[in-house]
């Protein structure tokens, strides 16, 4: 995970991510890949899963459980637009998911992750050894979870400390 220190600063304050039409992740999700077969092709993807089964509210300057989670939105995998690429290509630069947007719009046609506001989420990063998207379900893959990237989805920032750090 790139910018790990920044992610940790946000995590300490309770990271919030705004889900809107332009809901880009901040801090942006960036990783550096190592140990890949230089000649093999890989598809990199990300999904965002519920961190628990609770709904939250921001009360007295902190997040607290406000009941059971709403029904989950349909799960979507976000495929990095440079996929597939060789291990050599992936390892030569920082991999950025800067085009990924977070949305609560069920009509979204871009395949962006669908999230419920006031719920806690955990991004997951997947490396799949495959040279074709159609082979994804049958391919070997590794999943990486960085606990400091957990966040609460909001439609507007609730926590001033997060807003200021941003």
From TrEMBL:
Domain of life: Eukaryota
Keyword hit for Membrane: no
Localization terms from the record: Nucleus
Domain T-box positions: 1-166
Single GO BP term: cell fate specification
GO MF term set: DNA-binding transcription factor activity, RNA polymerase II-specific; RNA polymerase II cis-regulatory region sequence-specific DNA binding
GO CC annotation: chromatin; nucleus
Hydrolase recorded as keyword: no
Key words, A-Z: DNA-binding, Nucleus, Transcription, Transcription regulation
Name of the protein this chain belongs to: T-box domain-containing protein
Classification lineage: Eukaryota, Metazoa, Chordata, Craniata, Vertebrata
């Amino acid at each position: 995970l790139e910018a790990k220190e920044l992610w940790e600063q946000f995590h300490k304050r309770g990271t919030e991510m705004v889900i809107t039409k332009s809901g880009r992740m901040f801090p942006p999700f960036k990783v550096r890949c190592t140990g890949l077969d230089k000649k093999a092709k890989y598809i990199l993807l990300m999904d965002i899963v519920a961190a628990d089964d609770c709904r939250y509210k921001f009360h007295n300057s902190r997040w607290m459980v406000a009941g059971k989670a709403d029904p989950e939105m349909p799960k979507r995998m976000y495929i990095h637009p440079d996929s597939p690429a060789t291990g050599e290509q992936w390892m030569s630069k920082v991999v950025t998911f800067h085009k990924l947007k977070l949305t609560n719009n069920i009509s979204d046609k871009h395949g962006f992750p669908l999230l419920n506001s006031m719920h806690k989420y955990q991004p997951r990063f997947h490396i799949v050894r495959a040279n074709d998207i159609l082979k994804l379900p049958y391919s070997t893959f590794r999943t990486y979870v960085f606990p400091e990237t957990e966040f609460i989805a909001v439609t507007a920032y609730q926590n001033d400390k997060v807003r200021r750090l941003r």
